[in-house]
Amino acid sequence: MLSNKVGKQLGHPTYSLTGWLVTKFLKWHNQILEENAVKLSNIQPNDTVLELGHGPGLGLQEASRLLVGPRGKLLGVDYSQYMHQMASKRMEEQISRGKAVLYHSDLVTMPIEENTVDKVFHCNCYYFWPDLKAGAKAIHRVMKPGGIIVTTLRLDSLKKAASMGVLTGDKWRPEIYMEALECSGFTDVRMENKREKLIKFQAIFANAVK
Ligand SMILES: C[S@@+](CC[C@H](N)C(=O)[O-])C[C@H]1O[C@@H](n2cnc3c(N)ncnc32)[C@H](O)[C@@H]1O
């Protein structure tokens, strides 16, 4: 019952006590994943970069520091109104300068033009998408040919969450997500083990081919 409630809030945080607690947890537990997803995306000053399921916005903030060229642009998509508002507050200055645009939207229907994004990254997100292939297809649509997508996760935590019933089904398994990417026009899909300080995590990389 409690694990089910926590699982629902992780997938779609709402204005509630559990939503607030889950958000505190996200900031504390996932900062390393957000920072490393940005590092591994090899962001260039004039890139257009998209974060999916940005949650509180730590990764957006990190990415915006690198987009210092005149054409550098940051996009974010999250379907939780709570997270959209929290991240919009964090990114207020960049939004007001036109350097960042955040969409309150499901990623499958994100209002982003096709072939416009150089780098996409997301952390702790894909296991909440109802349909992994539809999600991967939607990402592929907005990416430029040769664009890179980076996904970071902590496999140990996912296994634990699945065993406790916080995550249900099999979608958290990286190989299922990687297969969805391969079926949607991505190549060179691979997972690497990484470590920062004492924390082990994984990064999945793929290239958009068109
Ligand atoms: C577990 S949280 C992770 C937040 C942040 N990336 C982090 O690691 O702290 C998952 C986030 O993805 C968002 N999300 C899940 N499925 C989504 C979808 N289909 N479209 C847009 N956002 C989605 C949720 O609203 C939530 O903010």
Write a structural description.
It is built from eight helices and seven strands; from the N terminus they run H-H-E-H-E-H-H-E-E-H-E-H-H-E-E. Helix 3 links the parallel strand 1 (48-52) and strand 2 (73-78). The mean pLDDT is 93. The termini are far apart. It is α/β, with parallel strands linked by helices and 210 residues long. The chain has helices at 2-11, 17-40, 58-64, 81-90, 92-96, 132-142, 155-163, 174-183; strands at 48-52, 73-78, 100-104, 117-123, 143-153, 186-196, 199-208. It has one domain (2-208): Vaccinia Virus protein VP39 (Rossmann fold, 3-Layer(aba) Sandwich). The structure holds S-adenosylmethionine. S-adenosylmethionine (SAM) binds at residues 10-13, 26, 30, 33-34, 53-55, 77-80, 83, 106-107, 123-125, 128-129.
Keywords:
about 210 residues; about 40% helix; Rossmann fold; globular; 7 strands; single chain; seven-stranded mixed sheet; alpha/beta; binds S-adenosylmethionine
Uncertain stretches: none
Oligomer: single chain
Number of strands: 7
Largest beta sheet: what is the strand line-up?
A: 3-2-1-4-5-7-6
Radius of gyration over all CA atoms, rounded: 16 Å
> What's the story with the biggest beta sheet?
7 strands, mixed
What is the terminal-to-terminal distance? 44 Å
CATH superfamily: Vaccinia Virus protein VP39
Query: From the helix content, strand content and strand pairing, which structural class follows?
Result: alpha/beta
CATH topology value: Rossmann fold
* Highest CATH level, the class: Alpha Beta
The total domain count is 1
CATH architecture: 3-Layer(aba) Sandwich
Order of helices and strands: HHEHEHHEEHEHHEE
Ions, cofactors and other bound molecules: S-adenosylmethionine
Average pLDDT works out at 93
Percent of residues in helical segments?
40-55%
Strand percentage lies at 25-35%
Shape: globular
Number of helices in the DSSP assignment: 8
